[in-house]
Write a structure and sequence with these properties.
By secondary structure, this protein is of the alpha/beta class. The protein has 16 helices and 17 strands. It has three domains: 170 residues, Molybdenum Cofactor Biosythetic Enzyme, Chain A (3-Layer(aba) Sandwich); 73 residues, Ribosomal protein S10 (Alpha-Beta Plaits, 2-Layer Sandwich); 151 residues, Alpha-Beta Complex (Maf protein). The strands form four sheets. It has a six-stranded mixed beta sheet, with helices on both faces. A hairpin with a 2-residue loop joins strand 10 and strand 11. Helix 2 packs parallel to helix 7, helix 3 packs across helix 4 and helix 11 runs parallel beside helix 16. It is globular.
Length: 409
């Protein structure tokens, strides 16, 4: 099954809003074996909408449309879709009742423009919007599918995950895919390392896709014939042969994986953060139920706070600097005592874009872990982008902890 995405909105073309919807949708489609052929961004213009939809449906099996479903005059998507599919707009009483309840439960007046959002194409299958008032619409014509969703990202995400992706997966049911999630090695180096495994995939007539993102590389193996046994076996083999790199076969969130390990072992964790300044704690606590194992954090950005909060020795800082193995270890050890946890992770580095030296360039990071097994530290060299360095430090720290717990380091 092939897909196209149409993103509607003047704000996208003006550069006022970044089109994150298209990249997210294409990524989710790839996970169920649907390839995205093209992404088209167009204005809130009736002629452009109809022409783009007509062209996309000639090329693709399914077209996903975002935007233009709000209550204002420039939100004309459903009118255009009704015209294209030769149907009329009718008041959907079920949707209307939900809209009225949505506003009244928040103590807000229900305007006529809000009620008009319940005017929906008669021949479309209506997709509920549990987080807003703009319903999605599913059309089918000549064996092709067109799906319209709101442009608000969190509303669209929920609609895709709860209603659309499961249905598209069923439509594409002959395919079977397996996922391998890795951390700690870039795409090109990883490809070189696993070349023999990749050759097995090719010989079996399967397809392998590399899906990189900052700090992580996902591998997707697809069987066009639905060979679940073979795909699952290949995924397990890679995890068994490279346990330091492969952190999961079923979830993208390394924080969730680490959380499950800590819960299973009834262990606790805390952090002492310098260059990540709380981002690592935020990543850990993004997982529901993190309070079962996460005890707290200390932000020690300056020399003074490193000494005062976690007892880093002044001599250590003067002799080795804040960004050093010695300082990272003392931070982790002091944090483990202060927080009274089984595992304490420390981060100290130069996030950038300035502050680097010849010996310690921007992107230099030390991560340390203190536990009943002892204290270990690892040096990482990232790039010059500050936000990316922080994100990669957090991901690397969590995988470092996973490997430390399992004895892979």
């Amino acid at each position: 099954m092939q897909a196209e995405i149409i993103s509607i909105g003047d704000e996208l073309l003006l550069g006022q809003t970044i089109n994150t919807n298209a990249s997210w949708i294409s990524e989710q489609l790839a996970l169920i074996g649907i390839n995205t052929l093209q992404v088209t961004t167009i204005a809130d213009d009736e002629r452009h909408i109809i022409e783009s939809l007509e062209a996309a449906l000639k090329r693709a099996d399914v077209v996903l449309i975002t935007g233009g479903l709000g209550p204002t005059k420039d939100d004309i998507t459903k009118k255009c879709l009704a015209e294209y599919f030769g149907t009329s707009l009718e008041m959907d009483q079920t949707v209307l009742a939900k809209i009225v309840d949505y506003f009244e439960s928040r103590g807000r007046e229900v305007l006529q423009v809000n009620k008009d959002q319940a005017l929906l194409p008669k021949d479309a299958r209506i997709i509920p919007n549990e987080l807003g008032t703009a319903s999605g619409m599913w059309f089918e014509k000549d064996g092709k599918i067109a799906i319209s969703m709101p442009g608000v990202p969190y509303e669209m995400h929920a609609m895709m995950q709860e209603s659309i992706l499961p249905q598209l997966k069923d439509e594409n049911s002959k395919l079977y895919y397996g996922m391998v999630y890795t951390q700690g090695m870039g795409e090109s180096k990883l490809a070189e390392l696993i070349a023999p495994w990749e050759k097995r995939i090719e010989e079996a007539g399967l397809k392998l896709a590399y899906l990189p993102s900052p700090g992580l590389v996902k591998l997707r193996i697809t069987s066009l014939e639905g060979d679940k046994i073979l795909v699952d076996e290949l995924c397990r083999d890679l995890k068994q042969n490279f346990p330091k790199l492969v952190y999961s076969l079923n979830t993208f969130s390394i924080a969730k994986v680490v959380g499950e390990i800590l819960k299973y072992s009834s262990s606790t964790v805390g952090t002492v953060e310098s260059c990540t300044a709380g981002a690592l704690s935020s990543m850990i606590t993004s997982v529901p139920g993190a309070s079962e194992y996460y005890m707290g954090s200390m932000i020690t950005y300056s020399y003074e706070e490193k000494m005062k909060q976690v007892g880093v020795l002044k001599e250590t800082l003067l002799n080795y600097g804040a960004v050093s193995e010695q300082t990272a270890k003392e931070m982790a050890e002091g944090g483990r005592k202060k927080l009274d946890v089984d595992y304490c992770i420390s981060t100290t580095g130069i996030a950038g874009p300035d502050g680097g030296t010849k010996d310690k360039p921007v992107g230099t990071v030390w991560v340390a872990i203190s536990s009943p097994k002892g204290t270990v530290a690892k040096k990482f060299i990232f790039g010059t982008d500050r936000s990316r360095n922080v994100e990669m430090t957090c991901l690397s720290a969590l995988n470092f902890l996973r490997n430390h717990i399992f004895g892979y380091n």
